[in-house]
Amino acid sequence: MSTTWKAILTLCGLTLVGSWPAGAGVDPVASEVAALNLRPGPAGSPRDMPPFTLTSLSGQAVRSADLKGKVVVLNFWATWCGPCKEEMPALDRLRRQFDARDLVVLTITTDQQRDSIQAFLTSLGLSLPVLLDESRNVSDSYLVRGLPTTFGLARDGRLVGRAVGPRAWDGPEAVALVDGLRNE
Fold it and tell me: What pLDDT is stored for residue 50 in this prediction?
């Protein structure tokens, strides 16, 4: 990325995680990253998806290694989190707009009351996959400090950015971001 583009992105308050390949022109997802106000993680945050295996609410093991080749949205949330409740329907609508071979939306919670989690999903009419991080190991490896926290990951497992607080994940910027990452 040229020095001029770096300066423009900095003026817009945008910091990308990683770097765009030299000579590749303008980053095709930069404007969407900026519009969604995605930021890099705090110091020491991973640049690539830390490996994990978690159990879903339905009892299925989900391994991060099996997600390579897909755009991934990881959302850390809790049933007691008001802003989480606000954004979860938008995450579900985003997931429904794309083929499961291209986009995976996973929600991760440290809540331990499975009945409460299911009641939460049912009350909102959601069918999002929920992964249980009862030991908080995955939340800690992603340095999650506030909820909701959402990470966007490219097909190669590279961290594109993170958002703390709710976003309109079904809005045109998020859809364009997923499209751009799918087509990289």
Answer: 87
- What is the pLDDT averaged over residues 85-90? 96
CATH number for region 38-182: 3.40.30.10
Contact in structure between 152 and 184 (CB atoms under 8 Å): no
Query: Can you name the residues that pair with 105 across neighbouring β-strands?
Result: 73
Joined together, the tokens standing for residue 124 give: 């909102």
**Distance in Å from the first CA to the final CA of the chain:** 16
**Which residue in the block uniquely carries the two structure tokens 């995605």?**
38
Nearest to 77 by CA among 159, 13, 164, 158: 164
pTM: 0.80
Q: How far apart are CA 109 and CA 32, in angstroms?
A: 26
What is the Rg, in whole angstroms, of the alpha carbon atoms belonging to the chain?
16
Quote the tokens at residue 92: 């579900």
Starting at the edge strand found earlier in the chain, the sheet holding 130-132 runs 61-63, 53-56, 130-132, 103-109, 71-77, 149-153, 159-164
Give me the sign of the Cα torsion angle 65, 67, 68, 72. negative
DSSP, res 64: G
β 61-63/71-77 pair status: unpaired
Within 10 angstroms of residue 117's Cβ, the number of other Cβ atoms is: 19
Q: To the nearest whole number, what is the mean pLDDT of the chain?
A: 83
Question: In terms of DSSP bridges, do strands 130-132 and 103-109 run parallel, antiparallel, or are they unpaired?
Answer: parallel
